Amino acid sequence: QRQELLVRAHKLKAVGTLTAGVAHELNNPMNNIMLTASSLQEDYTDLTDEDRLDMVKDLVGESERAQKIVRNLLDFARESTFQLQPVNPQRLVEETLRLATNQIKLAKVKVRGEIDSNLPPVYGDFQQLTQVMLNLVLNALDAMPNGGTLTIALRTPSGRDQIAMEVTDTGIGMPEQVRANVFDPFFTTKSAATGTGLGLSVSLGIIRQHGGDILVRSKVGEGTTFTIQLPVAMVPAMIPESKEIDPDEIPIQ
């Protein structure tokens, strides 16, 4: 029960982080809606029926865009019961990038994907695994205050019934004394206002509950790689096909 409460608290913190990006991202469609609606009101009698229809379509499109931004956050924040099921690793990455899109744009970070073909599913709780991936991605962005490259790789190590999910940044890196303690509860290099030190500890607990582990390697001035190791699902299952990750779909400001 204590672990469950920690997971829930950590998820709420992630929601708070995402909310800042959502607020920033909502400015664009809301501004477009306001400008289009004002133009429609002021020039209504001078516009042709076709012009009016085009402007109404623009209003609907921008409204749907704003709705989608909010819905993404609500879907992640919604309480869900622990549910073990076959999980497509690529879909897991796509969902994580979708949630972190606003933060990635604000951080001016380039995203790269390195995905092995024919990846088998893992067996776990999709929401909790997404929470772990999101935590690693947000940490990677924090480590690149001046921009950089975020690489997410999915691999199947030869001869092992495992999936390796790697999150690599080109940020400031960690000295050995920090790396050695990075999974300790309440250990953090962030200020008290921005970090509690529970994120990586909770993430490690979630992955170990799934029969896996998290490894980390880092070099000061070059960056850090976190590797999630999860066992391949040992149950027969049909999982949905997932399209190739296209980092270019995440626009960089």
Total helical segments: 6
Strand order of the largest sheet: 2-4-5-7-6
Cα distance spanning the termini: 42 Å
The main pleated sheet reads as:
5 strands, mixed
Shape, principal axes of CA atoms: elongated
Helix share of residues?
Answer: 40-55%
Structural class: alpha+beta
| Secondary-structure arrangement, i.e. CATH architecture of the largest domain | 2-Layer Sandwich
How large is the share of residues in beta strands? Answer: 15-25%
- Cα gyration radius (Å): 21 Å
What is the third-level CATH name, the topology of the largest domain?
Heat Shock Protein 90
Kindly state the mean pLDDT as a whole number? 79
Number of domains: 2
Spans with pLDDT under 50 lasting ≥5 residues?
A: 191-197, 235-253
Short description:
The protein is of the alpha+beta class and 253 residues long. The protein has six helices and seven strands; from the N terminus they run ααβαββαββααββ.
What does this structure look like?
The chain is α+β, with helices and mostly antiparallel strands and 253 residues long. It folds into 2 domains: 2-77, Orthogonal Bundle (Helix Hairpins); 84-234, Histidine kinase-like ATPase, C-terminal domain (Heat Shock Protein 90), CATH 3.30.565.10. Helices cover 48% and strands 19% of the residues. Helix 1 packs across helix 3 (89-107) and helix 4 packs antiparallel against helix 6 (199-209). The protein is elongated and about 70 Å long. The N and C termini lie far apart (42 Å).
